[in-house]
Design brief:
Blueprint lengths: L1 H40 L4 H26 L6 H34 L3 H6 L4 H30 L11 H28 L6 H13 L11 H8 L2 H13 L13 H6 L6 H33 L9
Helix pairs in contact: 1-5, 2-3, 2-5, 3-5, 3-6, 3-7, 3-9, 6-9, 6-11, 9-11
Length: about 325
C-alpha cells in the first residue's frame, strides 16, 4: 500500500506543480497588467486621461471621413462610411495590442532600465510583457467602442443590434485578439534585437499592415501581389469578419469584382464559413511563428547581452 501511495503521489505531484505554475503565471500577468495600467494612466487626472485615450481614434476617423467627403463631392456612400468607421475603430485595437506590446518592452529596456531585472525574476518575461501590453489593449478597446458609438450617433452609420451575426462576431473577435497579440510578440522579438531607432518600428510595421489588410479600403483596389499578401495576414480576415457581423451585407474588404478572391474562388465575396476558416488558419500559423520567433530572440538576446544593453534611443 505504501508503494502504491508513493506511485500515486509521484504522479499527482507534476499535476499540482503544473497547476501551481498556471496560478503563478496568472498572478504575474495580473500584476503586470495592473502596473501597466498605472504606468499609462497615473500621469494625469481620469477625465484628461479619458479624453487623451479617445481623441486619437476619433481624430483619425474624422480625417478619413473628411477625405471621403471631398473625394465623393460631399455625398459619400453610406455603406462606405460604415466601412471606414468600423475599420478605423478596429485598427485602434491593432495599434494598442500589437504595437503596445513592443512599446512595453522598449519602455522597460530604454526608459526604466528594468528589462534585465524582469528577466531574472521568477516569472516568465513573456507573461510579464503580455500583462503590460494588456493595459494598452484595454485602452484601445475603450477607444474602439467610443469610435463606433460616435459613428452610429453622429456619422450616419447604420447599425441594428438585432441584425448582428453573433455566431460570426464572437469567434472573429476571439481569434482576432489572439492574432493581434501574436503579431505583438513578433514585434517584441524584433525590438529585442534592435539597437537604434527601435521606437519607430512598431509604428512602421503597423503602417505597412494598414495598407494591405483592408482597414479603410477594399483590397480589390490594390495590385494582385499585394492582395495575396493581405490574404495571408490574419488581420485581413478579422476585419472582414467583424464588418460582416456588425453590418451584414456591407462592403467586403476581401472580395469584389476583379479581386484575387473572386478569381481564385469564383465567388464575389467570402461567406461566414470561409472568413472563419481563413482567420483560424492564418491565426494558428502566425501564433506558432510568433512563439518560435520569440524563443529564438530571447535566447539570442541572452547570449549576446542585449537584455541589459540600452541604445539611448
Amino acid at each position: 500500500m505504501g508503494t502504491m501511495a508513493g506511485v500515486v503521489g509521484s504522479r499527482a505531484r507534476p499535476l499540482r506543480t503544473r497547476a501551481e505554475s498556471l496560478r503563478d503565471a496568472w498572478r504575474s500577468f495580473g500584476t503586470a497588467a495592473k502596473i501597466g495600467w498605472q504606468t499609462e494612466s497615473n500621469w494625469t487626472d481620469p477625465l484628461l486621461f479619458f479624453i487623451y485615450s479617445v481623441a486619437k481614434p476619433l481624430a483619425a476617423v474624422a480625417i478619413l471621413l473628411v477625405m471621403l467627403a471631398v473625394v465623393s463631392g460631399g455625398n459619400p456612400d453610406p455603406g462606405f462610411r460604415a466601412f471606414v468607421v468600423v475599420g478605423s475603430a478596429m485598427w485602434g485595437l491593432v495599434l494598442g495590442g500589437m504595437a503596445g506590446l513592443a512599446w512595453s518592452l522598449l519602455d522597460d529596456r530604454e526608459r526604466y532600465r528594468m528589462l534585465k531585472y524582469l528577466y531574472l525574476s521568477p516569472n516568465a518575461l513573456l507573461v510579464l510583457l503580455l500583462g503590460r501590453g494588456a493595459a494598452r489593449l484595454a485602452i484601445a478597446v475603450m477607444g474602439a467602442l467610443i469610435t463606433l458609438g460616435v459613428g452610429v450617433a453622429f456619422l450616419g452609420v447604420g447599425f441594428d443590434l438585432g441584425r448582428v451575426d453573433w455566431l460570426l462576431l464572437v469567434p472573429s473577435l476571439a481569434l482576432g485578439f489572439v492574432s493581434i497579440v501574436a503579431l505583438g510578440i513578433v514585434l517584441a522579438a524584433i525590438c529585442m534585437q534592435t539597437r537604434q531607432e527601435s521606437w519607430s518600428y512598431p509604428d512602421a510595421v503597423a503602417g505597412a499592415m494598414f495598407l494591405v489588410v483592408g482597414a479603410v479600403f477594399p483590397l480589390a483596389v490594390l495590385p494582385q501581389a499585394v492582395q495575396v499578401a493581405g490574404l495571408m495576414v490574419p488581420l485581413t480576415w478579422w476585419l472582414e469578419g467583424v464588418r460582416q457581423a456588425l453590418v451584414p451585407g456591407s462592403l467586403s474588404s476581401i472580395g469584389g469584382t476583379g479581386s484575387v478572391w473572386a478569381q481564385l474562388t469564383g465567388t464575389i465575396v467570402p461567406g461566414s464559413g470561409a472568413i472563419l476558416l481563413g482567420l483560424l488558419v492564418t491565426t494558428v500559423v502566425t501564433t506558432l511563428g510568433a512563439l518560435a520567433a520569440y524563443r529564438w530572440s530571447e535566447h539570442r538576446a541572452k547570449e549576446r547581452g542585449l537584455l541589459d544593453q540600452t541604445t539611448g534611443s
